[in-house]
Amino acid sequence: MKFNMKIKDFAAADTNVAAGLYHFVVTMSDNTQVRLIFTKKPDWKLIGVNRLLTVPCPICRRDYYCNCMNKYAEEFEREVLDKELISSVL
Question: Which superkingdom (predicted)?
């Protein structure tokens, strides 16, 4: 199944400025929630993707942890950086 959801909501969850780590909670167009972990040393780079267990995975339909969202890390990073969503919440 092709994952083609778009970001509907983007919110800052946690920051560690000293370490350069930033956590964001993203709600996708199908209400799937994902935690994106970015680092800023010196440019923004996505280093982790975790699906929050609010709804089943839209790809494999599992109710528990899976690694499906990791396959789309590049798409998440590109959409966040292209739309400048980080600067809108920090």
Answer: Bacteria
Question: What is the number of structural domains in the chain?
Answer: 1
Distance CA 15, CA 57 (A): 26
Task: Check residue 40 and give its pLDDT.
Answer: 93
What are the residues facing 38 on neighbouring strands? 22, 46
Of 63, 3, 28, 1, nearest to 36 (Cα)? 28
- d(Cα 76, Cα 71) in Å, to the nearest integer? 10
Q: What is the per-residue pLDDT across 23-62, written as a single tens digit (0 to 9) for each?
A: 999 999 989 999 999 999 889 999 999 999 988 998 888 8
Domain for residue 1, yes or no?
Answer: no
79 within domain boundaries: yes
Q: Which domain does 27 fall in, by range?
A: 7-88
Q: pLDDT per residue over 9-19, tens digit each?
A: 999 999 999 99
Rounded Cα–Cα distance for residues 53 and 46 (Å): 20
